[in-house]
């Protein structure tokens, strides 16, 4: 079996958030995602990349192309070593924000993805994984 | 420094966003545009986003802010050319941009602004006659 394609992108500046969007878009296009699915995945990735930058003090993105039988998907993981999230349920609620944002990032990214997973420990950081299938 | 150009044409300010903006660039545009509305005494602002492949919550908020700020500064803003996939995604994201006037394309947007300017001018005439 061929090794699945992966990409990594550090997220240190707001220009890196743009690079994340471009990388996710390129992989979604290569794997035959519809325009709406591309846009949803790229938008979700943009929200999470910004979260990693603004709340996590920077982090990194890892992108994997998934090939499970007939389905193709793109999975994107955002990891930071920031302060972590004490109350994940509250953080997922629309309008909840500790920063300058609208508080739509986490909940919005979840709605725009087919699968969503978040692991966070106060003081250790946050890892969010989203998957969108074609 | 990198900037999005703002063109003045009569009472209108025209902005075409043609690149994938990072957050600082979006903030700069917001500041530049409000400054220009005041400096140029503009009454109408048209923002063409037909080249934008994605609008996330930050860029969406910038668009909403520009519309709100220009309204406070007595100017009308219309956002034109949003791609259907972007519109679908924005609503699902939770940011339907209710307070922002939109039009399908530049032509419709200009017609809308022109009608508003004419209506505003008529109002002023009526006031001075009394």
Average pLDDT, all residues of chain B? 92
The span between the termini of chain B is: 50 Å
> What is the succession of H and E elements of chain B?
EEHEHEHEH
Structural class, from secondary structure content of chain B?
alpha/beta
The CATH class designation of chain A is Alpha Beta
- Enumerate how many helices of chain A there are, as a single number: 4
Describe the structure.
The complex is a heterodimer of chains A (134) and B (130). Chain A is 37% helix and 31% strand. Chain A has helices spanning 14-30, 35-54, 88-92, 105-111, and strands at residues 6-11, 59-68, 71-80, 115-121, 125-133. In chain A, strands 1-2-3-5-4 form a five-stranded antiparallel sheet, with helices on one face. In chain A, strand 4 and strand 5 (125-133) form a beta hairpin. The longest helix of chain A is centred in the first third of the chain and has 20 residues, at 35-54. Chain A is globular. The two termini of chain A are 21 Å apart. Chain B is an alpha/beta fold and 130 residues long. Chain B has one domain: STAS domain (Transcription Regulator spoIIAA), CATH 3.30.750. Chain B is built from four helices and five strands, in the order ββαβαβαβα. Chain B has helices at residues 23-39, 57-72, 84-93, 106-129; strands at residues 6-9, 12-16, 44-48, 76-80, 101-103. In chain B, strand 4, helix 3 and strand 5 form a beta-alpha-beta unit. The longest helix of chain B is centred in the C-terminal third of the chain and has 24 residues, at 106-129. The N and C termini of chain B lie far apart (50 Å). The interface between A and B is medium-sized, with 27 and 22 residues.
Question: What structural keywords apply?
Answer:
heterodimer; A: 134 residues; alpha+beta; Heat Shock Protein 90; five-stranded antiparallel β-sheet; 5 strands; B: 130 residues; alpha/beta; Transcription Regulator spoIIAA; five-stranded mixed β-sheet; 4 helices; globular
């Amino acid at each position: 079996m061929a090794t699945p394609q992966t990409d990594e992108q550090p997220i240190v500046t707001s220009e890196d958030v743009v690079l994340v969007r471009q990388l996710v878009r390129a992989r979604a296009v290569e794997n035959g995602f519809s325009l709406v699915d591309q846009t949803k995945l790229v938008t979700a990735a943009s929200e999470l990349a910004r979260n990693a930058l603004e709340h996590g003090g920077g982090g990194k993105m890892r992108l994997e192309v998934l090939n499970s039988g007939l389905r193709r998907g793109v999975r994107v993981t955002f990891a930071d070593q920031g302060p972590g999230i004490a109350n994940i349920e509250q953080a997922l609620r629309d309008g909840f924000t500790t920063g300058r944002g609208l508080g739509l990032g986490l909940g919005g990214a979840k709605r725009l993805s087919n699968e969503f997973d978040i692991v966070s420990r106060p003081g250790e950081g946050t890892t969010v994984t989203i998957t969108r299938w074609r | 420094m990198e900037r999005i150009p703002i063109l003045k044409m009569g009472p209108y300010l025209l902005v075409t966003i043609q690149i994938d903006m990072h957050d600082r660039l979006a903030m700069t545009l917001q500041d530049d545009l409000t400054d220009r509305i005041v400096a140029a005494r503009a009454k109408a602002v048209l923002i063409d986003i037909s080249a934008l492949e994605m609008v996330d919550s930050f860029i969406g908020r910038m668009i909403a802010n520009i519309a709100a700020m220009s309204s406070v500064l007595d100017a009308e803003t219309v956002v034109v050319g949003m791609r259907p996939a972007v519109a679908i995604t924005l609503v699902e994201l939770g940011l339907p941009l209710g307070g922002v006037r939109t039009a399908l394309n530049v032509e419709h947007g200009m017609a809308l602004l022109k009608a508003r300017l004419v209506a505003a001018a008529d109002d002023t005439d009526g006031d001075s006659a009394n």
